[in-house]
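User: I want to check something. If I give you two sequences, will you return the structure for each one separately, not as a complex?

Assistant: Yes, each is folded on its own. Here is the first sequence with its structure:
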Amino acid sequence: MMAHDWDVDSKWLYYFGLKSADLIIAQTQDQKLKLKRGFNLNSVVMASVIKPTSNRRPKKREYILWVGRADTWKRPMSFIGLAEKLPNLKLVMICRQENDSNLFKKVKKQAEKLPNLKLVSAVPIEKIVDFFAKAKVLVNTSSAEGFPNTFLQAGTTKTPILSLKVSPDQYFDKYNCGFTANDEQKQMVKLCRKMLKKPRLLKTMGQNHYNYVKKNHGFKNIDIFKTNSVKLC
């Protein structure tokens, strides 16, 4: 199964392993297409799944949220940059340390300088949903992803997405549940301001995101073996 878009880039050593597999599962149509074009390999698309939380008590939307690890490709400093450009807004950054301790130290040092940014180093898995439920927008700054679990968590809590670059199968545009800044920091700042100035737009996008996740990533709807697509030919 593809875990990341990097898995379908031109990595020929990885290819020798893939061509020996009986079944290759992609997370998105984009990954499926890249596998076919790059390696002439067939695959089946199986969406990630999550249980919607529609019965959860609504939370007051308080801040802009970022969730991830202190890895270079996650680009946490881009979120720090967003916080610097939006001094009158409240931002929360859940960032745990991984192998790059220097990057984490840099993030922590810069975050401590910003009164509008709260850095949380770790959150128990059973409590993370509450952070999503209180977020006005979830921001993603990664240079590449597969299909992030954070997008699904945002969807179940009716939270729209603002992504610096990543947009799996361009579903933000197709379902009107977020924006992509085309990897431009200034555009991300501009779009964030636009979203927050329009509470009705945020509510609509949030509901659209919930509807999309419920329809396309619910357990009842994911069964690739009911379709002919599982026949790799």
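And separately, the second sequence with its own structure:
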Amino acid sequence: MAPTLSRITIYPIKSLDGLDLESTDVLPSGALRNDRRFALVDADGRFVNGKRTAAVHSIRATYDLDSLSVRFNDAQEFSLQEERDEIGQYLSSLLDIACSLIENSDAGFPDDTSAPGPTIISTATLREVAAWFPNLELEESRRRFRANLEIDGVEPLWEDRLFGPAEVPVPFSLGRVRWFGINPCQRCIVPSRDSLDGSAIAGFQKSFARRREEQLPRWATRDRFNHFYRLAVNTQLAAGQSAGRLSTGDLLSIAQA
């Protein structure tokens, strides 16, 4: 089976729950439409996210993109454009941090601003990582690592083919959209925690890094790992690609050198 896009997930509010889509537009910035379009910040402009407080994991968010609204914890619904002040107040009370909601509809708020495209991982990788830890299931692995694009039909860690030596982007196509693979994504504390209640697996980072190094494919570019707490691939649009559209079922092909 050829590498195939099997899942698209966007995160309309950075750090909160994702939304699965069958297709989505790629913006000129390389971001997926509505991905990390909104973010919570404190009075100093610092992100309020899962890296900062485990309380974020207790917040459930469901979205309606047609009305651009969000419902929190199956209760209160807000307009993401007309009630941002109210959203900030509501979430401030849940997180015990004074925060407000900001918006960037053109590029979102990516973690890696030098590679602001969607993050890519394979289904097999997520399943393999889940097997490294007791009682960790595939769906929970997805929620912890928060990748945008999931590729099926390949072996675990196949996506490590999408980066090479530093300063040498790997060109590939997904459907009709051309991309550069840039680097293996550095992880934070978030994957160590249960995505729903914030409870942590003791020694997660150390155990993960050990297994990641042990299973690094022999063909992977090892010197891109200053440490092995990295998973998924950061991307950017290829030169000359201004926008596009992705759909599940699109095939991924790496450009031949």
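Because they were folded independently, the notes below concern the second chain alone. Residues 4-31+111-254 form a domain with the M1 Pyruvate Kinase; Domain 3 fold (CATH 2.40.33). The mean pLDDT is 96.
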